[in-house]
TrEMBL record:
Keywords: ATP-binding, Carbohydrate metabolism, Cytoplasm, Galactose metabolism, Kinase, Magnesium, Metal-binding, Nucleotide-binding, Transferase. Residues 18-65 form the Galactokinase N-terminal domain. Residues 298-366 form the GHMP kinase C-terminal domain. It comes from Flexivirga oryzae. Its EC number is 2.7.1.6. The lineage of its organism: Bacteria, Bacillati, Actinomycetota, Actinomycetes, Micrococcales. It comes from the Bacteria. One of its GO terms (biological process) is galactose metabolic process. The keyword Ligase does not apply. This is Galactokinase.
Amino acid sequence: MSLVRTPAEIDVDAVVARFRELYDAEPDGVWAAPGRVNLIGEHTDYNGGFVLPIALAQHTVAAVRQRADDTVRVASATVDGGVPVTVELPGVTEGGEYGWAAYPVGVGWAAAQRELPVTGLDIALDSNVPVGAGLSSSAALSCVTARAWSDLLGWDLDDETVADLGRDAENKIAGAPTGLMDQLASVCGRAAHAMQIDTRAVTIEQIPFDLPACGLSLLVIDSHTEHTHTTGEYAERRHSCQEAALRLGVRELRDVPLESLATTLDKLPPLLRRRARHVVTDSARVEQVAQLLTSGDDPRRIGPLLSESHASMRDDFEITAPSVDALQEAALAAGAHGARMTGGGFGGCVIALVDKQQAEPVAQACVAAAADGGFATPTVFEAVASGGAARLR
């Protein structure tokens, strides 16, 4: 039996049937928004730097109906036994306790802050984006809601604004201090492309990323070491970056020149020096990877940059975990061209760039390394660059 698994597709008809059962009505439509994998550029997004994500084939699917009042009822097939959560939109405030429903109802709050017309919704959800793996299951949830609300109420928003509604929901209502990368990737993904995102200018350049055409696979190796953005560790890294920028007299770490990095960072105490060095060098690696991919060069050449990024996250930013490091090392030893942790850190997934025929041996090596280290058994699937949030029917 192959260890490289394909996650089960979501049965859209079943989501619609579940909606009818829950709400005794027909949905107005069905929408989907994907999770994402970031190829390179970690913790650079809230520092004004560059990131390079792809949208995944794994999605959150939502059957949605507009209501005439201010009530949101939302049920997920994967949470709380599928029982709907009911929230009154006028009562949604920063700091409120809404559980997982903070992500969809936060979108309504964010829209109201922009003085957009907002009514309630009935929502039935299902998802095959792994939760707690650093693959932005939360962004898929907020962005599918934002896309559905925008379409139903005729907000006529560009993709960047739809993504920004999702970010506000996560930052201000769910309390997760993410940058904008996750939501932009979920909304703006394109098949067979990665997105080079300038997070300061909020511009996206679509970069060719058709690995199957080159005999390659991008494996996602889920360590099953739980990852969460709401921990104090994530917030500490963000604060350290802000402190480093302040001490260096720059707006954001994006503004620290790579050419004089060593001299510039000598002005910082050791901890802030390491944090800043990771951000500046990883943002530069994004530009290097994007240049290689657009040049028509062999994509295998990006492998060493992926591995350099992992070393930087491990040694300078200190956001990897022993289980993740073991998987990264095992993937390289088994023949991966490059491998790195992806996501906010402290668990989650490793991505590995491999020749197609090496996918299974690399997966086997990672499972064996986890067993040897006493870690949870990882699961492995192939990441395929896919399209962004859209209406399905």
